[in-house]
Amino acid sequence: MGNSQASPASASSSRFVMASRAFSKQELDSLRALFTSLAAQSQTSGRAISRAVFLEYYGVRGPLGERLFQLVAKESDGSDGVTFEDLIISKATYGRGTRDEVDEFIYQLCDVTGDGVLTRSDLEAVLASIHETVFAENKGVGEGSNDRTFEAFLNSAVFSKDAEGVSEKAMSLSDFRKWCTLLPSLRKFLGNLLMPPDSGRPGFEVPLLHYPENISTDLLLLNKEYAWHIGGGFSQHEVQEWKLLYHSSLHGQSFNTFLGKVTNGDAQNVLIVKDTEGSVYGGYASQPWERHSDFYGDMKTFLFKLYPQASIFRPTGANKNLQWCAINFSSENIPNGIGFGGQPHHFGLFLSANFDQGHSFTCSTFTSPPLSKTNRFRPEVIECWGIQMRGAQDEKPELVKGTVLERFKEDRNMLKLVGLANSSD
Q1: What is the band of 279 on the pLDDT scale with cuts at 50, 70, 90?
Q2: Of 288, 218, 284, 209, nearest to 249 (Cα)?
Q3: Quick one: average pLDDT of 369-380?
Q4: CA 312, CA 107: separation in Å to the nearest integer?
């Protein structure tokens, strides 16, 4: 008597065969070797990777790690752990699937309770896991966790879905995709959890920040979480080294001083503004700040918000009005100051040459909303960080091993970085 419907075992075998085709023979051999090694540590007679060994190897902490294990072990119900078939099917879907398949996997991953409804509490758990995985173990002397940073990440999320049996609104897949677009570091992190942990996984890297000892961390607008967020807008997947070039509390709120500090620094820099309303935002300038009578720059430039919401706004290609730096022009058509996007007198972000006022309007260059609460604002703090990409120079500045934020003394060279590849362990 024929069987018109495949059994669960044969269905799983069919998915395994299909999933295996996503990998070359060499890749399958490498995955088999990895599985054999981890299964041997799992006290399962080599049948599966135990939960404890799986979580220890991939290093994802908290509820997100538990949920990752559940999804990977889903085919075999996870009673013994992750089988080789589980590993291949999940890696094929998650790592080699279509964009829709990957987004659906990550969307389910963030539903840490597994109830089919993605709520704010799920996202809180996800962000707590990211903090524990990426930041907590790299905490340096003098560093403190900034809870309001993750509050800003949550504040950029939209919940538009009505879910049965749930009083609060849930996040739809469309909502989730928009959130990931605004927070590219989040998307990189969630999209690379099953990469080998020693491979410099995108989303796990945190820029190393350097600043003089004579400035308190309490005065800095930038912290390691914000740097992680801004760094997600870069196309490079390397850890960057960021050095404070200018801070208005340290150097005075002066345009000329600002230009003197930043033109002697690295060409690529991050400008951050806190206004008198308490909002924090800025822009990434991929080209040096130089005197021009018109817009210049390239498509790597972007705008961002840090607080009360965190978002990144990339160029759309609608125009090439990316960076603006006008000095000592007498024409009313050429406003003196620095800015990003939009049009003269109607920028996406602009600081006047006196550094005492600025404005931010809806901007088609980046499809960005006003960054400030009101279009016109007064800056309270302005700071600028120079960015040195790893490997960009033969002679690297020296850093301290294993930390994210390390103070340096201005009268000596920075200590040499040791074990950079393990900075996210």
Answers
A1: very high
A2: 218
A3: 97
A4: 20
Non-local CB neighbours of 205 within 8 Å, separated by 6+ positions: 228, 231, 237, 238, 239, 423, 424
How many other C-beta atoms can be found within 10 angstroms of the C-beta atom of residue 1? 3
Q: How many angstroms separate the CA atoms of 206 and 209, rounded?
A: 9
Q: Which domains does the chain have, with CATH numbers?
A: 14-137+147-191 (1.10.238.10), 208-389 (no CATH)
**Residue 154 pLDDT more than 80?**
yes
Q: Residue 402's closest CA among 372, 378, 422, 377?
A: 422
Pairing type for strands 323-326 and 337-343 reads antiparallel
Length of the chain (residues): 425
Whole-angstrom Cα distance, residue 123 to residue 63? 11
Q: Say if CB 271 and CB 338 are below 8 A apart.
A: yes
CA 88 – CA 101 distance, rounded (Å) = 15
CA distance 293 to 330: 11
Task: Tell which residue, 215, 211, 221, 268, has the closest CA to residue 245.
Answer: 211
Contact yes or no for 243/267 (Cβ under 8 A): no
